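User: quick one, sequence for these tokens?
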């Protein structure tokens, strides 16, 4: 039996914790880590990724399907074909009802990128080739105890799609570690603040995160506003055939007009991003 152990690396707090634990021998050794790059992470994430690569630990493979925001603006997906949706908020003119578009971005720009790298880079498989018998694969997810509902959904997906050869592993959930525990673990080990990992224009941002981006990261804020405006530009491919207007913020107002609410609790300060409903388990870690 051949075993392979790979970490989904988002280069945020939780997955950084797992990567450093693997280096320190505090969890099962990994063969490599895979960072699926949407091209839209904050600059701090890319700088942090460079720092992780400098540690000389397990190889970090950086793979990408293209820059998500550019594809969104041009109304194409990562293969240049159909439109890929992000989970925008929608509202019809004169209505108070708020809707939401489909979320396809995590699957296409994260999950599928990682799975393709696993098959080609880790297992050495040609396209459309089956995993040979005798191979057992373990995929590690940086999901913490406070978002453990995501883990159960990943278990279900794995058992449907690849139960015979692949298994998800959740070391933080097994330890009942929250994001706060991870931050405590990283203190003194990382010479800078470990960033939050997510696209700068992700509609899952809570107000605390939108406010942080606006106040501390002008470049990321400008990109978020650019994408928000593009969603409503008349004639833009991104909103073709849409009868409702799209927004990044749940208030259904342009970002530049939103007065972000103060954080409501300590947990929101820690998380900042509402990924509890994001079932792919690859964003925000």
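Assistant:
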């Amino acid at each position: 039996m051949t075993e392979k152990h790979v970490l989904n690396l988002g280069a945020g707090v939780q997955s950084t914790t797992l990567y450093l634990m693997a280096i320190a021998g505090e969890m099962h050794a990994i063969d490599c880590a895979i960072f699926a790059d949407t091209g839209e992470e904050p600059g701090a994430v890319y700088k942090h990724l460079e720092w992780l690569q400098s540690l000389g630990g397990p190889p970090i493979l950086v793979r990408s399907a293209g820059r998500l925001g550019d594809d969104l603006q041009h109304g194409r997906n990562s293969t240049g074909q159909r439109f890929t949706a992000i989970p925008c908020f929608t509202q019809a003119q004169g209505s108070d009802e708020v809707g939401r578009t489909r979320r396809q971005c995590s699957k296409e720009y994260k999950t599928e990128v990682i799975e393709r790298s696993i098959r080609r880079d880790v297992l050495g498989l040609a396209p459309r080739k089956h995993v040979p018998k005798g191979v057992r694969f373990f995929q590690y997810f940086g999901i913490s105890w406070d978002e453990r509902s995501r883990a159960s959904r990943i278990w279900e997906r794995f058992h449907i799609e690849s139960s015979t050869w692949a298994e998800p592993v959740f070391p933080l959930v097994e330890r009942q570690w929250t994001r706060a525990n991870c931050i405590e673990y990283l203190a003194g080990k990382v010479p800078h603040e470990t960033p939050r990992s997510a696209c700068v224009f992700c509609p899952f941002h809570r107000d605390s995160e939108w406010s942080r981006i606006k106040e501390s990261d002008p470049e990321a804020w400008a990109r978020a506003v650019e994408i928000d405006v593009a969603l409503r530009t008349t004639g833009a491919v991104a909103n073709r055939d849409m009868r409702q207007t799209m927004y990044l913020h749940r208030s259904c107002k342009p970002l530049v007009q939103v007065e972000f609410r103060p954080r409501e609790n300590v947990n929101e300060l820690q998380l900042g991003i509402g990924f509890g409903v994001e079932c792919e388990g690859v964003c925000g870690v």
